[in-house]
Amino acid sequence: MVSRRLCLGVLAFALGCREPLDDNLSRIEGPRVLAVRASPAEAAPGEEVEYEILYVDENGDLDASSLGWGFCLARKPLDELGPVHEACLTGGDTVNIVPIGAGPSVSAALPDDGCRLFGPDRPPPVEGQPAGRPVDPDSTGGYYQPLRISSTPVTIAATRIACGLAGARPEVMTEFAKRYRRNENPAVLRAWAEQTEQTPKDRIVVETSTEVTLAVEWEDCGGADEPCTGSEPYVYFDPESRSIVDRREAIRISWATTRGSFAFDHTGRSEEEAESARSENTWSSPSEAGDATVYIVIRDDRGGVGWRRFHFDVVEP
Amino acid sequence: MKHQFARSVVVWVLASLIGCLLPASVGAQGAQPKKGVVTKVPVLVTFAEAEYPPEERAAGRVASVVMKLSIDEQGKVQAAEVTESAGPAFDTAAKAAALRFEFEPAEIDGRPAPVKIFYRYDFTLKEEAPVTADFGGVVRDRVTKAALGGVTVTLDGGEQSTTDEKGRFEILRVLPGAHKVTLSGPRLTTIQTEETFVAGKRVEALYDVDPQRPEAGSEPVDDMEIVVVAPPLTKDVSSVEIGRDEGRRVPGTQGDVLKVIQNLPGVSRAAPGSGAVVVWGAAPEDTRVYVEGVRIPLLYHYGGVRSVIASNLVQSVELVAGGYGAAYGRGLGGLVAVHLADWKEGVHGSVSMDFLDASATLQVGVGDTFRSAAGVRYGYLHRVVPVVTDRDVGELFPIPQYFDAQARAAVFTNPTTSFEVGGLVSRDRVERAVSSTDPDARRSDERSVLWGRVYGRFKSRSDGGSEVSITPWFGIDETAQTQRYGALATELTDHSTLFGLRASYRGRVWSDPEGAMSGVVLSVGLDGEARKASLARYGSIGAPRREGDQTVFGQGPSDQVSGDRWDAWTGSPAIHGEAELSFFADTLQLIPGLRVEPSFLFASRSTPVEGDTPSIGVFQQELFLEPRFAAKLALGERLRLRAAYGLYHQPPAPEDLSASFGNPRLESSSAHHVVGGLDVTLLKGLSADVVGFYTHSSDLATRNPAPSPKLTEALVQRGEGRAYGVQLLIRKELADGFFGWVSYCLSRSERANDGYSRFRPSDFDQTHVLTAVASYEIWGGIEVGARFRFATGFPRTPVTGAYYDAKSDAYQPVFGTINSDRLPYFLQLDARLSKRFDLGKLELEVYVDVQNVTNHENVEEIVYTPDYSKSGAIFGVPVLPVAGVSSSW
Fold first, then answer.
1. For strand B686-703 and strand B669-683, is the pairing parallel, antiparallel, or unpaired?
2. Sequence spans of domains, chain A
3. ipTM metric
4. Which CATH architecture has domain A169-317?
5. Please, what is the average pLDDT of chain A?
6. In a 3-state reduction of DSSP, which class is residue A87?
7. Which class in CATH covers the domain with range A31-166?
8. Cis omega (within 30 of 0) for bond into A153
9. What is the band of A79 on the pLDDT scale with cuts at 50, 70, 90?
10. What are the residues facing B693 on neighbouring strands?
11. Which pLDDT score, from 0 to 100, does residue B230 have?
């Protein structure tokens, strides 16, 4: 995102100026995790899940063999406004962190009590007291098993766990169970550089200090009831109407580059714009010749992830 | 106060001379001026003000007298002949004044020459904002009730008046403040009492005294009893009251009287754009605002840009930071009392406009029986800003849209009994939307509040001086806020209906000036209030923010969502009483009080909605016995010591009674206030006031820190708070065109989120707050003023690191110790320049209010890069002039 200096000269009540800050997150300047993918994207407690990580630095993909993985079993208190309990951030916590392996990819079965720790099932009652409060879902109705990865800084990933509903009438629960389809990881269906019509399969040649429009497309899921790697339709239990409503996933594209810069860090389509299965961004090639790698990460708002790479040869004109 | 308005006459004279001289000189009569060409008109250099005939002024009559003036070669007025009479009284006064005029002589053909001119002298009456009070009353025999003439009533400033045969006395233009009153006379042993005067108000006293009775053979009666009826209201120990004329001239307030609250001791500097009133470190919602006894939800429109009541309808605003008496309750923090303007006779009005809004007021008084006043204001900032600024401004900063109106009318069945009805309404709305290519970065924020109050009031003062007031009121509060952070939406609506009743009696029940206990004034009353709130809330459980939440500027709320719809009833009919016990000729005052407040609370859902489970409510009752106590001790003429203690309770906010987002079993929270201080009269009109305070709050609702909370305990009542400090006010009251004050507060406001954690600075803590205000009328209606403010920065929780949240592709902050860091200090100098033009019956004021004249960069917030590796600042307003104009008649 481009920094702007904002000044108000007229409002007595409002803030005046913001210091310009380099808030360009799409430029890779050191070791960074760009994405963590769980396959399948949504699984029930006890089911096996395979995890992969996209770990990069300014030279491209980075060896992730030293990264350790572990499930975090600490439930977040209500006064913690971040996504996880602070215990999930601490390395060496053998009580709250259950190691599941190391390397660029690991596999493990989701903890059996996920729906009770992080889902709609009430925690076991303490003697003499009523059962506790279930975890509230996110805005797509999902519950998530947190996962800790020992990168620097620490990475917290989340796996959507397939649980039931909390507080719904039996017929609503039945309908939900019948109609709800687990999330699929989204995927970049097609990506290309518009000026060259070249795709990531190619090694794209561009001149220095050139603006290139990169475009991505994902699968148009329409109203299909089949597994889909685009903006999937799904059913959602609306806490306001206490009924099931039909929704569609939002798709968000994260752009990152080892050299050059992007006009925007993120683009995408909101739920209301889901009829469009395309997004684009402008990449400015570096001023000096050399290689550059562009990473395109696609996410749906139910926790699904996919990614693609572009390789550029940046040459002098 | 009505007085003769002379300056417009001078203007008229200069204008009229040009039109009148030539005919006079051409048609020279009497003095036979030389024929020739007038090369210079006579110029009035010494104007003599005519004495306004008292009977005409009392009757409110205005008039014009046209005279033919004969001016000699030296510029002296040799004769004044009335050509258009306005009656003997006006004619005589005008002629007497005109004969004292001095002119630069007229010149004909370049040489001084006698001339005749026509001159019109206008007698006009004009309303000016009062700066003094009037004092009048009757002295009579306590036993026979007969009027006592010849009694001299003397104020400590030397003003005096002697009672006539009806026992009446009258002293006008008394400076505001407490004054000693001495009664003396040939048959009276000199006795003394004290009265408190407020600018623009009249103190009407009835003194029943025991004169010596020279009956033959009897012993002289030497026990004097003085009964002062209509006893002055005893101010609370930490009370500071600012009148309209002072308040509207304070720089930075843009002429808004009620904004002066932000400059008083004990009030923290509000965060820009918040308009919150933080008193002694208490949360803004813990401070109650009353307009003549009717509670209102907000003192300012959104953003704090403007108050909710037109300034011309306000007489004064009073801040009681803590330790207030038994008449008020239901709040843990301070008290703001808005006193509406005194009624006026005739037709008066005002129109004001500046960059923010336009407003108008109208006051109509007919005879002695009917009075009315109304005001309306419309804010158009949201229409102006898009025209003069970049579109981003509206996206990043919510521009308030507001409207308010007030109306009241009263019928006086006699001078001391009135029936009044009135209403207040205010509406606010802000909308903000931030567009982005990133669906998660799209933001929108819509908030609105509509509230209204309707009240009736019966007020009566008996011949004995006791006062009775009954005020029933009804109101609605409707608030709605919808915020979207990407796909995460949060919505909260509250439709509340309120009922209130305040009734009070106040009167002197005992008086014995010579005894150890010199008097007892009793105040008793009923303060009832009930509220039915229907609420709906959906979205993040982390929004809106609560005190103690660890977030950074711009950070979205927790992505966990829930929903609930519930009703909440709260109510409490409080009975209160206070006895003002005066000892040793009022040297010592002890004011014990008690407030008995039974309270009920009903939440419609005891558990979150689950399937078809029927709604089962929670009903709770509480009974509060709240002792209040104040003591005042006068040490000599200039020094007074004060102390106060009070126990206060506050019902939970209806929005906290949700089974999903709050806790339907919350009970009232409580606070103890301990206040002590002294005030010293340094010079006449100049005083110093020092107050130390300590407050302790308990049972505050905070977020539940347990990883596995009980089903309906998103909030728990384990929070504690305390605030302590000392504040200083050195104040010069308005006199001779100058007023000002310096206020300083050194304080600490702390919170503990649960009973076991250590106290830490609260979100509202500001260690040092220094404000200096001064305003001076230089000459001819030109006023200059300045305000200087220094304040410690708000506490902030430092960001010590970050971690990567792969699900949202965003970095999340890792926080250090809560509120262990601060924003840099705030420093700002504001200035105000105004000019008042007197245009006959119309007064016009033009002003420029310049904020931050030194363009000091005040850091108002800390912002971070997305990975929290670097931080920057958002600065407050740069130098900012706001011009406005107002007129009144």
1. antiparallel
2. 31-166, 169-317
3. 0.94
4. Sandwich (2.60)
5. 87
6. helix
7. mainly beta
8. yes
9. confident
10. B675, B725
11. 44
Separation of alpha carbons A51 and A62, rounded Å: 16
How far B247 CA sits from the closest chain A CA (Å)? 18
CA atoms within a 13 Å half-sphere pointing along the CA-CB vector of A179: 19
Contacts of B237 (CB under 8 A, 6+ apart): B323, B630, B632, B642, B643, B644, B675, B676, B677, B691
Output the pLDDT for position A260.
Answer: 93
Domains and CATH numbers, chain B: 2-127 (3.30.2420.10), 133-228 (2.60.40.1120), 239-244+250-432+443-546+563-608+625-849+862-888 (2.40.170.20)
Find which of B804, B812, B850, B875 to mutate to test the A interface (most A CBs within 10 Å of its CB): B804
Does the pLDDT at position B29 exceed 50?
no
Q: Which residues contact B799 (CB under 8 A, 6 or more apart)?
A: B552, B813, B814, B815, B816, B864, B868, B871
Range of lowest pLDDT (B273-282, B370-379, B725-734): B273-282
Whole-number Å distance between alpha carbons of B760 and B756: 12
Query: Cα B758 to chain center, whole Å?
Result: 37
Considering only CB atoms, which chain B residues are within 8 Å of A15?
272-273, 397, 860-861, 874-877
Q: Classify residue B157 as exposed, middle or buried by CB count within 10 Å of its CB (0-12, 13-18, 19+).
A: middle
Whether residue B127 is predicted with pLDDT greater than 60 in this model: the reply is no
Question: Measuring CA to CA, which residue among A167, A91, A185, A260 is closest to residue B807?
Answer: A185
Interchain pair B562, A239: CB under 8 A: yes
Mean residue pLDDT of chain B comes to 84
How far from chain centre, in Å, is Cα B149? Answer: 40
Type of residue found at B680: V
Residues 97-136 of A with CB under 8 A from B: 122-123, 129-133, 135-136
Q: Return d(Cα B836, Cα B8) in angstroms, integer.
A: 12
Contact (CB, 8 A) for B779 and B803 = no
Both structure tokens of B765: 């803590």
In the three-class reduction of DSSP (H, G, I as helix; E, B as strand; rest coil), residue B286 is classed as helix
Distance CA B767, CA B280 (A): 10
Strand ranges inside B326-466, DSSP E = 335-340, 346-354, 357-366, 370-379, 401-414, 417-434, 443-461
Asked if the C-beta of A151 comes within 8 angstroms of chain B's C-beta atoms, the answer is yes
